[in-house]
Amino acid sequence: MRTPTNPKIMKLLIYASGGEDRRRMLAAINGQAHRCTLETYADLERLTGRLRKSCAEEMWLVLVAGTCEELGEFTDLVHLIQHCRSILVLPDRRHRTLVAAHMLYPRYIGYLDGDFSDIRSVLAQVFQKNIVNTAQP
User: Fold this and answer.
1) Which of 25, 72, 89, 127 has the most crowded CB, counting CB atoms within 10 A?
2) Residues 15-46: pLDDT tens digits?
3) For residue range 94-121, what is the model confidence (pLDDT) as tens digits?
C-alpha cells in the first residue's frame, strides 16, 4: 500500500527547443521538480522517440511552442501527443494558433509571453492529485 510519504513518482517530460524558454520553464517549476521524475528535451526527434515508448507510470507532457511553425510540428505528432496528459505553451494569442493547439487535446494552455506561474500552479495541483490518488489503497 502506498502512503502520502511514498507516492508513485510521476514522470514529467518538458520539450522546449529554445534554450531561454526551457530555462524559464525549469525555473518556474523548480520548487515542484522534486515531486516528479523530470525529463527535458530540446530535440523533437528525441521527444518523439521517447513518446513512442510505453510508460506504465503517470506521465505528463509540457510542450513549449516557440513559434507557430513549431506548433505545426507538434500537430504532426498528434497520434502520440493526444494520449498524453499535456500542457501546451503557445507562442501567441491569435485565434488560429489556439485552434491548432486544441487539435492536440491539451489539459491546459498557457502562453510564452507569461511568466509561467500559471503552469507552476497547474503542475502543483497535478502533483498533489498524484499524491492523493497513489495514497489510496
Assistant:
1) 89
2) 999 999 999 999 998 877 777 889 999 999 99
3) 999 999 999 999 999 999 999 999 999 9
Q: Name the residue with higher pLDDT: 118 or 133.
A: 118
Q: Which residues, 6+ apart, have CB-to-CB distance to 6 below 8 Å?
A: none
Q: Cell 514522470, residue?
A: 11
Amino acid at 68: C
Integer angstrom CA distances of residue 16 from 45, 55, 83, 90, 137 = 12, 21, 19, 11, 37
Provide the terminal-to-terminal Cα distance of the chain, rounded to the nearest Å: 6
Provide the CA 82 distance to its chain's centre, in angstroms: 12
Q: How far is residue 77's CA from residue 79's CA, in Å, rounded to a whole number?
A: 5
Phi, psi of 21 (to 5 degrees): -65, -40
